[in-house]
Amino acid sequence: MVATPKPQVDIGDYRYGFRDEEDYVFKSKKGLNREVIEEISRMKGEPDWMLEFRLKSYEHFLKRPMPNWGSPAIHEIDFDDIYYYIRPAEKQGKTWDEVPAYIKDTFEKLGIPEAERKFLAGVGAQYESEVIYHSLREDLEKQGVIFLDMDAAVREHPDIVQQYFGTVIPYADNKFAALNSAVWSGGSFIYVPEGVRVEVPLQAYFRINAENMGQFERTLIICAPGSYVHYVEGCTAPTYSTNSLHSAVVEIIVQEGARARYTTIQNWSKNVFNLVTKRAAAYKDATMEWVDGNLGSKVTMKYPAVWLMEPGARGEVLSVAFSGDGQHQDAGAKMVHAAPHTSSQITSKSISKGTGRSSYRGLVKVHPGAEHVRSNVICDALLLDETSKTDTYPYMEIEEESVSIGHEATVSKVAEEQIFYLQSRGLSETEAMSMIVNGFIEPIAKELPLEYAVELNRLIQLEMEGSVG
Amino acid sequence: MFEITNLHASIEDTEILKGVDLTIHKGEIHALMGPNGSGKSTLANVIAGHPAYEVTEGTILFNGEDILEMEPDERAQLGIFLAFQYPTVIPGVSMANFLRMAVTNVRNARAEREAGDGEAKKMTPREFRKLMREKMQVLHMDESFATRYLNEGFSGGEKKRAEILQMALLEPTMAILDETDSGLDIDALRVVSEGVNALANDEMGVLLITHYQRLLNHIKPHFVHIMMDGRVVQSGGPELAHELEAKGYEKLRAEVAATA
Prior knowledge:
The complex is a heterodimer. Helix content of chain A is 24%, strand content 35%. Chain A has 12 helices and 24 strands. Chain A is globular and about 60 Å long. In chain B, a hairpin with a 2-residue loop joins β1 and β2. Chain B is globular and about 60 Å long. Chain B has one domain (2-259): Rossmann fold (3-Layer(aba) Sandwich), CATH 3.40.50. The model of chain B has no long low-confidence stretch (mean pLDDT 92). A 6-stranded mixed β-sheet of chain B has the order 6-7-8-3-9-10, with helices on both faces. A 4-stranded antiparallel β-sheet of chain B has the order 2-1-4-5. By secondary structure, chain B is α/β, with parallel strands linked by helices. The interface between A and B is medium-sized, with 24 and 31 residues.
């Protein structure tokens, strides 16, 4: 097998649009039916309960109508024209040398092994439907930290998985959660034991390669009392003229006094529908933080949520979205205050350019009896030109009186005076624009580990190139 | 070396500059005075290349090259610098990041010009940090200034000092200071003036735009020009500023009208 990456240069300045020739162990037929689901389950050697869960989910998926909100473009998705399961290799590598050479090459190009050596405690690399490489630093393993791909977790830790799987996001939550529950494959499973702090981030990287691919990873993270973990995910895909679908489900349980941070740098190619359900349940004095960066994809609909279940729980979402030509980022956050003395903060920053459109869609819900809740929402939108669009859908369902809720929203345009000022100091118009945009997202970038902040700035720089003139 | 001839410029079809003539040689400090609305700030903006103004007639030659078709950044890279009367806030962009990029662009462009076909010596990040610290000390600026966001929450004096810091780092050969004295208390005025005096040299032309004689007590101009209604109506030595201070603009306007 020879790696034959082909640079695809037809859409924008996307650098990760290359693809590999397919050399797969198994590729399901296009389209979805019971047989496909049974085949996936059989190939994975799953227990019966999981197959039943998949089939129940599939029934619900069929019955559930498409969402009639968000982006109208999602009605273009042809569920019969998607490959639901591709197994690229026989087995998972514990070292990169055990990974098929062309896949290893691709991840080298994406910088994953290098990042692993430099600043990560563990890495999972998913290619199409399967995680083809997995590692965890030995000292963490010794402390009882479990970091596996989700399929391995079902085999090796069935008790924990069965206890929590589908509890934060039931299969009937929404149409795409049902789809994921029916055909899920890959994703991460993390268990951090009581009091253990994983100070260095764990990362998963998701790569789609085939045309018309559907990727449906499933992630479950459990932070036992007093523990801490920072999990980072990145993703890219080749650029095709047809659409691909990425629909993940991420469930997180943050137990008493624990803290979890989940950072996403989403950089799908501009033919990917990215329809993801992410939700955490935070218990007594626990903290859940979502840092959500959306740069790529054709359409993203994603609203990381925190359910604040017990007093002292705290949720935070930092969301940054960049919508270039032809993109619609419908992103935001949900905070559900189910207990008194809980607090939440949502900070959303969006940038729209050309024919791009960014929407902030958020929910703050306070249940009856959840007294002394504090919540604050800030959403700022930046428009780079006359054609780009932004809109805001801030939903508030407050069923308790003794609460403190704040909401601020701003829309601004890059001022001619700002560009002129920077140009008069020797910056080109593009450099000036990039600097203003990077300044706009600085409150979020500074929350990222340095490497990811640099990556985010660089990606925005790429998006800005050729945008003015 | 810097020669403005018959410059006409408009904004939204209103003509503001109506034939400005002004020549500034290397090493000279010129003061440009005039009442509000006479076109002083417009002239500064047109020299720097503000896109809102349309030049309808005339030329600006800088070392023999017409700069009017150039982008503002190309002008900056040639050595033109405008210290703004109202510097713009750029949220989230630290002074240090901004300055590094500006200084790198301007100095590297100059290094490349000077190197010709040879290898240009580029500035390293380490050299930049050292230079920035030195210049900040000269202007009595705390080091923490470098981490603040560009002009955000700056006092009037801090904004003006930040402008002079940029001038010090970019080492222009033609510097225009637009009402750099406005909004400064006497101590800040002294610091800023000392900064400008320390920077002015035999290779640099300076155009000081000011309303008042006050600044000229601190920075001694070689020439003084009076601008009214879009033209330079009178030019002379430093004594012209004193004369103006004594008479006021109204009287001068009447005199100009009488001789026209």
